[in-house]
Amino acid sequence: MASLQDNPAGQASDIQISERTPAQATQSSNYSFPRSRLRQSMSDPSKTPLLLVSCGSFSPITYLHLRMFEMAADYAKYNTDFEVIGGYLSPVSDAYRKAGLASAEHRVAMTRIATEQSSRWLDVDPWEAFQKEYQPTAIVLDHFEHEINVVQRGIATGDGERKSVKIVLLAGADLIQTMSTPGVWSQEDLNHILGRYGVFIVERTGTDIDDALAALTQWRHNIWVIQQLIQNDVSSTKIRLFLKREMSVRYLVPAPVISYIEEHGLYDDDGASSSIHEKEKESKSKLAAEPSESV
Fold first, then answer.
1. CA-to-CA distance for 91 and 237, rounded, in angstroms?
2. What is this structure's pTM?
3. How much is the CA Rg of the chain, to the nearest whole Å?
4. How many Cβ atoms are within 10 Å of 17's Cβ, its own excluded?
5. What's residue 274's pLDDT?
6. Rounded CA gap, 200 and 126, in Å?
7. Is 194 exposed, middle or buried (0-12, 13-18, 19+ CB in 10 A)?
8. Which residues pair with 53 in a beta bridge?
9. Dist. CA 152–CA 145, nearest whole Å
10. pLDDT tens digits, residue range 87-115?
11. By C-alpha distance, which of 160, 230, 222, 215 is closest to 185?
């Protein structure tokens, strides 16, 4: 999974990082928080309602991105006192400027296609994706906290009361490794993300998670580690490499997403980050430049 870091090592230094709160960030006039798949009441009022949020590039989204939510839901059901009431994918904005990053328009479209056709409870929030500045993970989680617990006032318990929803970050083990690496994350952000919210971590092959957790002991109570009972190490990076080599990615990426990639010519050497509108303009320009054929 392509996990985001607030100060990723090796990342270009010209990223514009927002220091604003979610309420101050750019809000499109036609944006509304997606709630259609969010549960409106709890099944068991004795439990703590839980919302899973996955921040990432999703360039492109893979079956593992989707599978992680299912693993987290199972883990919460059988190993905790949480009740999952929803799950959101939050694609990073174009300001992240990561190599191989398709435009926000394309990535939001692909994640929507994937969730709409394969899940009844997962949804995509485009708020982060269409921000002009890069939004740190802490700010993104604050955005969900605001929409769920302030605007919506939590969730109904079924007995006339409402409960505050616990917001947690869902990520791969590579994220927790970066969090344990000195100098990558600020202490303030670690306190905000791990202390205030918490994280569900899905183990990945080749990642030594025990060493990472040893450096994060003060937040260990707010970190839940999920074992992959069936190992899957597919990543967006590997998918992009396969596509550039013209190799099949079928059954690694949802079929409708593959069709979308092919339709828009994504992840070739020239057009990984072009927006839909840029592609349309380019296509029209080529047609205008071509000489008309005589009948």
1. 15
2. 0.84
3. 20
4. 12
5. 47
6. 22
7. buried
8. 88, 169
9. 10
10. 999 999 999 988 889 999 999 999 999 99
11. 215
Which has the minimum average pLDDT: 89-93, 96-100, 137-141, 272-276?
272-276
- HEC string for 148-199: HHHHCCCEECCCCCEECCEEEEEEEHHHHHHHCCCCCCCHHHHHHHHHHHCE
Query: What is the predicted pLDDT for the residue at 100?
Result: 87
DSSP lists the bridge partners of residue 199 as 169, 223
Name the residue among 274, 204, 202 with its Cα closest to residue 238. Answer: 204
Q: Which residue has the tokens 């905790």?
A: 80
Task: State how far the Cα of 253 lies from the Cα of 111, in Å rounded to an integer.
Answer: 11
* For residues 231-251, average pLDDT: 94
pLDDT of 208 = 78
Peptide linkage before 60 cis (omega within 30 of 0): yes
Beta strand ranges found along 203-291 (DSSP E): 223-226
Phi and psi of 50, rounded to 5°? -130, 135
